[in-house]
Each structure stands twice: as C-alpha cells, then as structure tokens.
Amino acid sequence: MSLRVLVVDDQALVRRGFAMVLDHEADIEVIGESANGLEAVDAAHRLRPDVILMDIRMPGLDGLEATARILDPTRPGATSLPRVIILTTFDPDEYVYKALRAGASAFVLKDIPPEDLVKAVRIVAEGGALLSPDITRRLVERFAETPAVAAGLGERLARLTEREREVLVAIAGGMNNPEIASELTIGAATVKTHVSSILSKLGLRDRAQAVVFAYESGLARAGQGDIGY
Fold first, then answer.
1. Are residues 124 and 148 in the same domain?
2. Which of 32, 84, 194, 203 has the most CB atoms around it within 10 Å of its CB?
3. Are residues 84 and 63 in contact, defined by beta-carbon separation less than 8 angstroms?
4. What is the pTM of this model?
C-alpha cells in the first residue's frame, strides 16, 4: 500500500519538484498539491493523506497555523491525523519550536537532497520523527530563556517509571534508540518498548512531541548533560 502524500507550497515549481521526486518512488503516491494554508486544510480533510509536506511562509494562512488546524484532535472527523514535515528555505530559531508545538514531526530545509526527502517521508509515516542535534539544541536554548513549566504536565509526568524518565531525557537530548541503549546499558528492543510506553502514557504521537513535553514539563533542562536526574 502506497504512502499518500500532500505537497503544500505557494510556489508551483517547488511543489512540482517535490511531487516529482516522491512520485518516482514505488511506495509513495502524491495525492494532491496545495498553494496555501487554507487549501491545505481543506485538502487534508478531503484527501486524508498519510504525510504532508508543509511550507511555512504562504499567503492567507501560513504553514504553522495550517499544521495546527490539521492536527487539531478536537476538530470534527479527526480520527486519523496525518504526519507533517515542515519545509522551508528559512532557518530561523523561532520556527523550530513553533513547528514542533503545532504538531509537526519533522523540520527540514527545502534544499534537502532528494534521497533524504524520500527517507524523511518514510520515517515520519512510520511514526518516527526527524530531530537533528541542531534542532534539539535550538529547543534547549528556547527553554533556557523561558524555563517556566506548563501547568498540568506534572501529573502526566508522574505516570512514567524512573527508567522511562531517563529514556525521555535521552530523547530530549537528541539521542536515537541505539545511542540510548548504549548510554543506559540496556537492549535496543528494551529502548523501543520504553519509547512506545512513554508515548502511550503521555498521550503523545511521536518523538517530536516527546521532546517538547520533556522540556515543557521541566524533566529535561537546558544545560543538563547527564541522563536522568
């Protein structure tokens, strides 16, 4: 079964370029293109894509607001939500946190190599997230400036075991599963189980939301170098 992808960008040539790259893959089907955020919201509801490539700066409704509307679990008919990859030619710090907070699973620049774009779509479709060390660093820096803990997150954090908290801190530090396994001296399969349990207990969709939660809850802190407490 092919991965259904919606491409959103206000530049026709950019949309066509991404669509051509993805349509070339046997397991990916571009089911639609949108030129702005409003069109994207409508198309997402009608076409029900698995993954959306979303530009940030567009007329009418930008990609961040469109992402938030599309991924709003309270909207009518929100039974199966797509994954969103934010695409941009810009690289400012302000967009990183906003994109993840809106529910995006990845944040990549438009000059990403074609093979990496295809890989990103597949990873995100499988429930993964693309959080490079650079993006994680920016998130850390944001919370260094605004360390206040969001209300109500403490109760959710209490659902986790001590080991799960250690794994969550590692995720927030940008580690992948093999790195976490090595750091905590546990098996890779055990790490995968812990990650699934963390997402389930906290009601999170993927690792991107887990990173945001770790900092907003105060579990992970800017400048924290060790795993755990």
1. no
2. 84
3. no
4. 0.73
